[in-house]
Amino acid sequence: MSEIKLDILAHADFSGRLRATKRGPGHAVFATEIDRLREENPEGTLLLDAGDEFSTNFWGGAPMVGAVSLAGTDAMTLGNHEFDRGEGFLDDCIGRADFPILCANIVRRDTGELIPGTKPWIMLERQGIKIGVLGLTTEYTPYMVTAASFAPFEARPCADAARRYIPEMLAAGAEVTVVLAHIPFYAEEDGGISGELKELLDNIPQVDVCMGGHIPGDYAAVLDNTVVMKGGFGGVSLCHAELWFDSETRQITRRNGKIHLTDWSLSPRAEYKRYADSVTDEFRDFFEKPLAITDERWQIRLSYETRLGNYFAQCVQEAAGADFAYMNATSAGGTIEPGTVTAEDITAVMGFNDPVLTTRMTGAEIWELFELVYVPERYGNNAGLLFSGVIVHVDHTKPAWHKIQAVTMRDGSPLEMDKLYTVASSEYMASGGNDTAQVAGRHSWQEIGVRVYDAIFSSLEKYGRMELSGEQRMFAIGTPENDNAPF
Predict the structure, then answer these.
(1) How distant, in Å, are the alpha carbons of 20, 26, 279, 396 from that of 23?
(2) Strand partners for 125
């Protein structure tokens, strides 16, 4: 028997973290780590990217396409955030890419055809072995970007696409099959997985490797002869599927999955450092400018009330002069340590910088919004809200649509069901993001000329400290149903 070693390196959700920061090693070090591993088997290694690359703050678009290319990416699938900035932005990114971009299950609404410039799958080859790579994107994408941005597109079932294209890859001669999926899954205590990706794998022909994404957390294991992996958020790790292939029988004889943690102390290759610096240097003063100080450690958790989440929502409420403000907890997370607070500290834990919009809602609609969020199926995809201006009592032991027990204003007065309140939110949530269109979609929203970062930075500079009203905003009985939050 003559064995050939294949090494499939993969990551997801680098999310534009070109600069080295407290939360990430930066592109130059991450790409150097990839090179170090690639050099162990230069003729038998692939690098795959499971998406969320292009639509980043500050240097989204062409600079990120260049970074993905510079790392030697062999194929990338679209993540939900690739759709954040609309059709023209996506077309431009795809047109600039010199690597294959895959997406088998999102099509143009007007033609029913795949997004121009993308492929459903690609055949790659290493050491004479044909490797079919299928690209899929979470079916929840329409609820994770603004409605206007996704309007030209339609997300179709991933399983239907896989059942069509995996046999097609095999018929074309694929000896190894890979699903590169910007799709979430959750690690269970027994080592197994649950969630959208698990449901997909249960309903498609078996594949040899499946790379997921979309949510933080590292995972690598062999499940029913499939190497299932997830990792790489912000370049802090790299997934690695090892396959040993018999050149005579043309079969995989052994397989393994593991996670590499990026060595932040690596000396980056000069080429990578020059590129990252060329993109980010003009923002150095912005990121490093001191805005305020704090004596506390602030942290966001997605499923529970935190002071940092409350602080961000309060900044938006005050900037808008609103009675109530709410934002999604998704795309936020992490900690701010005691000491000087800079713009980089804020942007590291608040991942979106949408325009702030306002509208008027009745008290009954505000109540309905919270009921909507805690429907278990919806909560499993999105977790909770960051909010300010009201105090909510929730009983998680009650059935859906009966969980909210009381909502009051901050002074303890009851929320009046027929009264109109001024409400502020992000553009994303105003468009019905996180599947909240049932409430948000009833209203006409107005921009106020302020973005989320503007609201936060203004508050920091006004007071010189991170200041927060002290009341508890969420009183809960039990724990949320279907809580998949990774932190």
Answers:
(1) 8, 9, 19, 33
(2) 130
